[in-house]
Amino acid sequence: MSERTSHRRRGWPQRLWRNIHLWLGIGLFVLLVPIALSGAILVYHDDIDEMMRTPREASVPQGPVDLPLAIANAKQAAGDKFQPTVVRFPESPRAPMTISLRGQAPKGQRPPFLTAYVDRNDSRVLNLVDFRASFFGFMHVFHENLTIPFYYGRDIVGWVGVAMLVLSLTGLYLWWPRHNQWARAFAWRRSPATSSNLHYLAGFWVCAPLAFLSLTGIYLAWPQQGRSVLSTVAPITEQQRGGGGPQAIANPQRSPAEIYTVAAARPNAAVAAIFFPSPQTGAWRVQLREAGKSEPTTILINDRSGAVSTVEPLAGDRIAFWIRWLHEGSHAGAIWRLIVFVTGLMPAVLGVTGILVWLRQRRQRALMKSGNHGQLASANAPSGAISNTTPAE
Fold first, then answer.
1. Fewer CB within 10 Å: N-end or C-end of the chain?
2. Which run of H or of E encompasses 289?
3. Which positions ≥6 away from 103 have C-beta within 8 Å?
């Protein structure tokens, strides 16, 4: 066996994974980049929305919010066919509270939802928006299902997540230095071209978070299958289906103001959201921000008896919560949030630089076949370092 044949046999795994890495990246570029960029935009959605919706002259309320008046104003602005389902209180006291309202669903269609932004000082409605028709609403729908109806869009996003995971792992394999040349692996001048150096180093540093976000994205794209797999390792609450979104009892016995008073009396806690009682549970669900806790605390208040109970999520539920929170960059601090944002931007950088690397290698291969070694040498002139990669086949 010749030395050249032996070398080719030893190098076939790298050529295989390089081709998989290349054609996945190029073939799905038009899907990978928009999905990743929309996810990066959504990382700071709440902050941007709060900044845009908070009036410049807004001040911290001096007393408790007039919740009955705020809800009445929201219902009046939305119309008689809409009923409140959720009241949310942003962490910033200057930011307006939001009241989500659910409308009657036309036959065979999803029910309409509106969001009222209400000033905390005088309970007036500042704005009434259809979230689905807003920019961020479109970004959410696009990131989740590419605006394709039924389950087809989610399936496409799920398979794109699988491709992103494969790209991350194959990229790490291709980056791995030969003969343990670690100093060269982390050096900027690994290749004569800037695009190649940027692709190598940026790809390495973003590899781990990109693989993690791809894996969690796969779970979120197929939640039923994901929860089924998760239930094999940890107990998890069975997911309720149907309903077309949150639905509330039309005439609950207790008022939202009473529920707020009961929940706000909890020590070292602030009310984050109040969910109106649903026909299935008959209980108000309240989310609290407690001091020293990164995740919210949920309590239930029975609409008839007023009994209060704390929801203790099962181990699988807590894992499922954290999968979503880590994927969207929430509840884990500003540093992780920034990492998620930057990771969402990097597929565009890696995609463009990867295509440039591929085009350059094709050109070099053509020059090698034509025997134009002088022009090939001039193409590698900017640096003495030569990439250890070969053109994909």
1. N
2. strand 283-290
3. 78, 79, 81, 82, 111, 112, 113, 114
Where do the structural domains in the chain lie, given as residue ranges?
11-42+141-237+336-379
| Three-state secondary structure call for residue 87 | strand
pLDDT in tens, 320-360: 999 999 999 998 899 999 999 999 999 999 999 999 989 88
- Which residues are bridge partners to 227 per DSSP? none
Of 306, 226, 294, which is closest to residue 261 (Cα–Cα)? 306
pTM of the model: 0.85
Give pLDDT tens digits for 286-317. Answer: 999 998 888 899 999 999 999 999 999 999 99
Give one DSSP letter per residue of 45-84, joined into a string.
HHHHHHHHHS-TT----SS---HHHHHHHHHHHH-TTEEE
**Residue 261: how many other CB atoms lie within 10 Å:** 13
What is the spatial distance between Cα 193 and Cα 261, in angstroms, rounded to a whole number?
Answer: 64
CA–CA distance, 304 with 282 (Å, rounded to integer)? 8
